[in-house]
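S1.2 Input.
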Amino acid sequence: MIDNVLTVFSAGYVALMALGLIVVFELKYQFNLDESQRRIVRVVTLVVFGIFSIVFHQNIGGEDVYIDLRGVGVALATIFGGIVVGALTTFAEIVTRLLHSGSGSFAGMLGLILDFFLAVLALRFISDDLNQKTMFQLLIVGAAVGLGEAVSLLLIQPFDLGWRMFLDFGLSLAFTQFLGVFLFGWLLKMQDDRIRGREHGRARIKNLHETMKGGLAALSTAMVHRDPSTAGHEQRVADLCVKVGQAMGMDETRLEGMQLAAMVHDVGLIRVPSEILSRPRRLSPEEFELVKLHVEAGYQILKDVPFPWPIADIIRQHHEHMDGSGYPNGLRGEQMLPEARILHVCDSIEAMISHRPFRRAYSTERALEELLAHKSTRYDPQVVDIIVRLFRNEGYQFPDHKMGVSL
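S1.3 Output.
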């Protein structure tokens, strides 16, 4: 019996079937397929595997006695594809058996039908949730189809021939199916568990991102209550930052980080007295020095939050100038993050175009001229050129502050 089983599993085609099954199941997750397309690939793969399990077989007796993995194909299709796929695979194997052996395969066809019903019965008996794959399922279903294949030998006519075949080869046939279901099913289960874990991790990361974005939006909203005159400032700045970043070829991940930084770039103003922020006159030098502290305050508020982007550093640098005359650290040019240089220019033009208690809003053209006048000294020249093009040539306008910003 052991020799017969080893003959089957030492055959090269068994290894190729296992490799093909795993490769196809892996590739369907690597390509950008939706769930319905993945389902189609899975169904086709399981049915084809079932057909191959009939086509490839081993001679284990001197009387043209063959063992194949037909029960394994039925079991895997039923466990990993569902009852409908199991039935479809069983039908495909019956057709293949007919084409291969003709009408003399009546016992084999009945055996395949028996395999399918025993597999379904076993699954229903041990689990109400057919989507849950367990090693216990593999063991029980493997034993069920093994029993079905062994019993099918008794259907061979005349009965005394079937009985002798059952006694001589029934145990080998049953153990072959059991071992095949366990080994192939174990491989597929490991892969399913790994893919499910990876997708669960992605879902958790997505939820964390949404939570972070919600928290930053709440901070941005809190600033409106501190200084109503700047309502919508962060959203408008964020919108322009994204447009500039897209023009500079930034990928979606960097754009998202820059957008979030822009949404809270003035969060440090929460530590500045509100009467200074709303004062209807130009600030005194002493008051301006207090306002300048907001970049460091914003950095301190957010520096320990484990963002996947350098949001705290972007906030800290968004008032630095290209020539080193900015604050708080007098950084120059490439010493600043690209996102901070973009934010600096977008923040400046939005502030100029918007009304403030101590001055009227600039016209768009006057604000653009102001940017050009300080190009390369205060502002990144590439960013200035892009913003000028957006406003003058492409008709860009800041969105209404009630609108959201999306990538």
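S1.4 Remarks. The domain at 2-195 is CATH 1.10.1760 (Arp2/3 complex 21 kDa subunit ARPC3).
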